[in-house]
Amino acid sequence: MTHVGVVGAGVMGAGVAQNLARHGHPVVLVDSDPHALTRARETIDRDCRMSRFLGGPDLDAEEVLGRITTSEDLAALADTEVVIENITESWDLKKDLYPRLDAAVRADAVFVANTSAIPITRLASLTRRPRRFVGVHFMNPVPMKPAVEIIPGEHTSAEALATVRALLDSIGKKAIPVNDACGFVSNRVLMLTVNEAAFLVHEGVADAATVDEVFRSCFGHPMGPLETADLIGVDTILHSVEVLHDHFADSKYRPCPLLKRMTDAGHHGRKTGRGFYTYDGAAAPANP
Amino acid sequence: MAQDVRAEVRQFITGRFPQITLDDDQDIFALGFVNSLFAMELVMFVEQRLGVRVPNDELRRENFSSVTAIAALVDRVGTGTEAPAG
User: Fold this and answer.
1) What is the Cα–Cα distance from A274 to B33, expressed in whole angstroms?
2) Which of A8, A132, A172, B6 is in Cβ range 3.0-4.6 Å of A86 for a Cys bridge?
3) Alpha helices of A67-112 — where are they, by DSSP H?
4) Adjacent-strand bridge partners of A136
């Protein structure tokens, strides 16, 4: 078993922690916000209870949570062997975090950036361990998705890559290797699709339900792009589109003003009860 | 009470899928639209809106397969706390 640190207890971090703990790995989950840590424990408890009902394995929530230690302090990660970073998709926040993380964690530990768009080589440059730095793009919801993108940076060693591959293998994740580029494969395409779908709503070409219906009924997608946006988080979508826009300096990645307005208004999707759809207390769309 | 639960559950499902006509005994899992996300929403709806904590051994598909099955489940496990208004 690998002693794993997980930084950031949002949707992705909680999912990663749960996935690791469910496969027996001891996890230290760190977030500067104590409320996020409480919410993460509640989410993990709920997801474990639901696992069998949703066609997954029978999970004992107490046993899974028993393997997860939470802390607000990066120092709790000092002895971990692999640290998976899942904080908000913002260069400024990551730029602030990585040097502190680098100082807090033992020098031979491998860092994994769970980013949806920021190039791995750029993130690795914030640390003194670019050889022990790997990108892994987990999909949401983490415990239910069978595959990830794995991205070596410019300086990533074969050894570090093998460590991360073995860890992913131990939690049942197929690792699909892609080269380092902003957005990798998945989000280079997905974020532009969601952004363009938002433009369709913004311009009044179709409402959200209609856009999604076209993708579900015509293409056979299980979910449309705007339902997907609500699941991922509208704010996360905006951050990712902004990262693509900044990185490529190409206007084809210009963020839709509607995404900005929704983010400013706190309409971030399922997690806040309203996004392209509205959700009641049970987190269910009232009008798709 | 039982009628209220039925009405609320029916409204929740048809609110989510306005294109369907639903009768209370219909197996919603057989309709083809229930994915794991909606299955989870259904459980959360029962627990949060109807104020029921579903015991782990009652978290089974057959207990959530129809409006009638859900109403029976709620009746069986009883109401814990008051459902929030609205």
Assistant:
1) 22
2) A8
3) 91-104
4) A150
Single-letter amino acid, residue A47: D
Active-site choice (A137, A239, A245, A267): A137
Q: For A278, phi and psi rounded to 5 degrees?
A: -105, 145
A158 and A23 assigned to the same domain: yes
Of B41, B43, B49, the CB nearest to A53: B43
Cα–Cα dist B42/A109, whole Å: 42
Q: Is residue A278 part of a domain?
A: no
CATH number for position A99? 3.40.50.720
Q: With an 8 Å Cβ cutoff, is B61 touching chain A?
A: yes
ipTM: 0.75
* Rounded Cα distance, A157 and A164, in Å: 11
Q: Measure the CA–CA gap between A270 and A196, rounded to whole angstroms.
A: 20
Comparing alpha-carbon positions, the chain B residue that sits nearest to A61 is B56
In a domain, A30, yes or no: yes
Give me the domains of chain B, ranges plus CATH numbers.
2-77 (1.10.1200.10)
Q: What is the pTM of this model?
A: 0.83
In the block, residue with structure tokens 């280079």:
A188
Catalytic residue among A51, A116, A195, A240: A116
Residue A280 lies in a domain: no
Instruction: Clarify whether residues A107 and A231 are in a common domain.
Output: no
What is the side-by-side strand order in the sheet with A27-30?
A68-71, A27-30, A4-7, A82-85, A110-113, A133-137, A147-152, A174-177
The residues, any chain, with a CB within 8 Å of residue A272's CB and separated by 6 or more, are A266
Q: How far off is chain A from B56, nearest CA to CA, in Å?
A: 7
Residue A209 sits in which domain range? 188-272
Count of CB contacts below 8 A, A vs B? 50
Per-residue pLDDT of chain A (288 residues; tens, 9 = 90+): 999 999 999 999 999 999 999 999 999 999 999 999 999 999 999 999 988 888 888 899 999 999 999 999 999 999 999 999 999 988 899 999 999 999 999 999 999 999 888 999 999 999 999 999 999 999 988 998 999 999 999 999 999 999 999 999 999 999 999 999 999 999 999 999 999 999 999 999 999 999 999 999 999 998 999 999 999 899 999 999 998 999 999 999 999 999 999 999 999 998 898 999 988 654 444 444
